[in-house]
């Protein structure tokens, strides 16, 4: 695959003071569990690169997951059919232990630290952490972030390479489509951390079925290579050239 250059794009944030010691960014987006909006504001995780790590109200999201939540002296216990048994020991924002029966182990400290914060005496949790604990999937766009449970059908994730192209036709503006069309294959690395990241976050890393399974069947297992293959294939598609995943990958 071609050399990749990384470009980080930051979205605009609205800042207000929500804690005793720092300014916590609040995002102008909505968060959902499947088709239901999660009650409360959505906060920016200052350690995350995108909205998939946004923070939502802990009691609100687990209520939608039909789980029982008990909080006693910074010990949070959660029980439910969709969540399994979860125990959170919150010492402080940088000292958190989380156990989840669905993953049958303590969650790695690199994931747990800063994954929960207290704002106005309420616990907020990274939606990506909840996704990990319940083995769900995530989707984001400009205006929302959505957590899907394991039993929720994801028709938004393409099944085939041509499905990817059809979805990109709807997703992208005409200027971007034209740029992909006229760019050389070697120049398409410029989309790795913009369009490529969106593809990886919304299509590739969410499930091992649908389009990801097609790549697995072609012995392609690296998400970066998957997204780059889709973008290069879309370039050929826009130019009226049909190529298989194997043909694109083996160029």
What is the tally of beta strands? 14
- Round the mean pLDDT to the nearest integer and report it: 88
> What is the 3D shape?
elongated
Low-confidence stretches: 1-21
Q: What proportion of the residues is helical, as a percent range?
A: 25-40%
What is the CATH level 1 assignment of the largest domain? Alpha Beta
Radius of gyration: 20 Å
Largest sheet: 5 strands, antiparallel
Beta-strand percentage?
25-35%
- Going by CATH, the architecture of the largest domain would be Roll
Structure description:
This protein is of the alpha+beta class and 251 residues long. It folds into 2 domains: 92 residues, Ubiquitin-like (UB roll) (Roll); 89 residues, no CATH class. Helix content is 31%, strand content 25%. The chain is built from 9 helices and 14 strands. The strands form 4 sheets. The protein has a 5-stranded antiparallel beta sheet with strand order 6-7-8-9-10, covered by helices on one side. α4 packs across α8 and α5 crosses α8. The longest helix is centred in the last third of the chain and has 16 residues. The termini are close together. The N terminus is likely disordered.
